């Protein structure tokens, strides 16, 4: 089972158990789907039959991601092996995720000092974040009636630690971290999170806030942390991770309903597969429904109850390394072996390569009638470019026939080479920002305004700009157009 399926399943089971008294229909449905993954033809849900009320220009993937990009032909550098040469040598589909992990794991950055550098200034940054959150909490009246807060938060009782997972903000990594902590309860030295297999960490039954009353916990805990992310970017990331690349589960749960509901005269294939759902259609679906039901796109305010649970550490995805280092400082722990998260960004990239490739190839097996393997490879390549792992200058190097022969392992190595060649950090950051901005260019202005409203408190409480440049320029242009 794929990591995200497991993630989803564990979240659902968790929530399903806690919220039996709440209408957690989405979860039940999801669980049923996962349990009966053999029977793919399900009845259409009633809400899918709602007439599409709005008609919009439909953007194809190429429209969304390709038109504005300046294509630069990839020229192999002489001192480096040509990346297209690698895939021929490893025709092997039979590696398990653990084996894959080991495979690239051996090239994981292994620097010598597992020490933690103290950054006193970062404590000030953290204090400012906590203060900002409290400031907003004072201004808004929150109903503390419904004990929805802290649901599913993971506990390390020994260290009196709580983590509220926010999906799309390194939550898999943090679950691996929590696994590592929980399994080394009395040690100052714990396993490096990247060495904890993903599926093991996601399947593990952690102690959670559901077992003991929240109020008792809030006081008793020493460290309460969460990681947040700029809401527009979190939303786009959900799209790229779950819909751009083949995903048997989310294409059905998100893409098919979005296409059926919001695309005028969608083709039969699109309605069956959801293979060409656009970002703007996804956004409409989020606005109409998903933001209330799906943890990947729910606001942090709804997921983690920041005003009821007094968080002590607030990490930002944008400053992940420093925040994680700070957290590790606060916990006064270090990692065993030669892993130093000085090189966290390298490990993050390698991990993204492994997990994404593994995921896309496995999901593809069930979606062969929805897209070609070549398309799958191209999309995976594009995903890595959007995430800023490999350079936009590197064109997808395989021919159709070569892609047909590609394996999980050969593809991972291909991406790994491309990653090694993508050494201009400035360029990678720029292309990430550009992909985000290009995606939002396709979203109608009124939908952008609705998103700003939906995530309003997330922006305010966590110090994000509701109108970053790329959003401001879209709104500005609209004003001048009127
Ligand atoms: C593929 O890998 C498995 C396990 O690593 C090995 O047992 C098998 O012989 C390999 N097959 C080929 C064709 O290389
Ligand atoms: C949380 O912080 C607020 C002030 O910001 C305080 O009034 C409240 O008692 C705290 N709650 C707990 C459980 O510590
Ligand atoms: C951190 O742990 C070390 C032992 O590994 C201990 O000597 C030190 O006092 C601890 N620091 C804090 C702030 O708890
Ligand atoms: C750490 O690295 C050194 C040299 O690179 C090696 O000899 C040692 O076995 C490594 N230790 C672990 C725990 O991997
Ligand atoms: C990895 O981290 C070490 C410091 O721990 C640093 O010296 C080295 O340059 C880093 N490697 C890369 C490729 O950034
Ligand atoms: C890195 O990329 C930036 C922006 O694309 C460019 O201005 C800069 O010259 C590049 N640096 C190198 C060393 O290629």
UniProtKB/TrEMBL annotation:
Keyword check for Secreted: no
Origin: domain of life: Eukaryota
Any GO molecular function: sulfotransferase activity
E.C. numbers: 2.8.2.-
Main subcellular location: Golgi
The UniProt record lists the keyword Lipid biosynthesis: no
Pfam families registered for this protein in UniProt: Sulfotransfer_2
Keyword terms: Carbohydrate metabolism, Glycoprotein, Golgi apparatus, Membrane, Signal-anchor, Transferase, Transmembrane, Transmembrane helix
Transmembrane intervals: 45-64
Membrane topology: Single-pass type II membrane protein
Location of this chain's protein in the cell: Golgi apparatus membrane
Gene Ontology CC: Golgi membrane
Entry similarity comment: Belongs to the sulfotransferase 2 family.
PANTHER family: CARBOHYDRATE SULFOTRANSFERASE (PTHR12137:SF54)
Protein name (database record): Carbohydrate sulfotransferase
Species this chain originates from: Batillaria attramentaria
């Amino acid at each position: 089972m794929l990591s995200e399926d497991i993630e989803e399943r564990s979240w659902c089971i968790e929530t399903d158990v806690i919220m039996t008294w709440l209408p957690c229909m989405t979860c039940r449905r999801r669980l049923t789907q996962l349990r009966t993954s053999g029977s793919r033809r399900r009845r259409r849900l009633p809400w899918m039959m709602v007439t599409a009320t709005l008609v919009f220009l439909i953007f194809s993937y190429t429209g969304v991601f390709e038109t504005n990009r300046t294509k630069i032909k990839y020229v192999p550098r002489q001192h480096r092996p040509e990346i297209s040469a690698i895939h021929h040598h490893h025709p092997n589909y039979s590696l398990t995720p653990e084996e894959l992990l080991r495979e690239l794991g051996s090239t994981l950055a292994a620097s010598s000092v597992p020490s933690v550098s103290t950054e006193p200034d970062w404590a000030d940054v953290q204090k400012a974040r906590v203060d900002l959150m409290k400031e907003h909490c004072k201004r808004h009246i929150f109903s503390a009636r419904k004990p929805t807060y802290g649901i599913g938060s993971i506990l390390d009782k020994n260290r009196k630690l709580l983590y509220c997972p926010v999906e799309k903000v390194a939550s898999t990594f943090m679950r691996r971290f929590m696994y590592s902590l929980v399994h080394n309860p009395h040690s100052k030295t714990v396993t490096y999170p990247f060495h904890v297999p993903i599926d093991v960490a996601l399947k593990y039954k952690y102690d959670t806030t559901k077992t003991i009353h929240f109020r008792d916990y809030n006081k008793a805990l020493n460290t309460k942390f969460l990681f947040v992310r700029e809401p527009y970017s979190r939303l786009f990331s959900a799209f790229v991770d779950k819909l751009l690349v083949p995903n048997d589960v989310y294409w059905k749960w998100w893409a098919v309903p979005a296409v059926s509901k919001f695309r005028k005269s969608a083709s039969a294939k699109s309605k069956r597969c959801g293979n060409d759902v656009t970002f703007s259609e996804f956004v409409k679906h989020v606005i109409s429904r998903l933001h209330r039901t799906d943890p990947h796109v729910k606001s942090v305010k709804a997921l983690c109850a920041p005003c009821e649970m007094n968080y002590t550490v607030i990490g930002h995805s944008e400053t992940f390394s420093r925040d994680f280092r700070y957290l590790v400082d606060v916990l006064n722990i270090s990692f065993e072996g030669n892993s130093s998260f000085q090189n966290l960004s390298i490990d993050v990239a390698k991990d993204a390569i492994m997990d994404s490739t593994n995921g896309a190839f496995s999901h593809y097996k069930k979606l062969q009638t929805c897209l070609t393997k070549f398309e799958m490879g191209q999309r995976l390549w594009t995903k890595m470019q959007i995430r800023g792992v490999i350079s936009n200058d590197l064109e997808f190097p395989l021919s159709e026939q070569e892609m047909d022969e590609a394996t999980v392992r050969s593809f991972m190595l291909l991406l790994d080479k491309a990653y090694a060649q993508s050494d201009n950090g400035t360029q990678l950051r720029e292309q990430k920002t550009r992909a985000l901005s290009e995606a939002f260019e396709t979203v109608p202005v009124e939908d952008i305004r609705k998103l700003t409203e939906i995530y309003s408190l997330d922006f305010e409480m966590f110090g994000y700009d509701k109108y970053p440049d790329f959003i401001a320029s879209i709104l500005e242009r609209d004003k001048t157009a009127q």
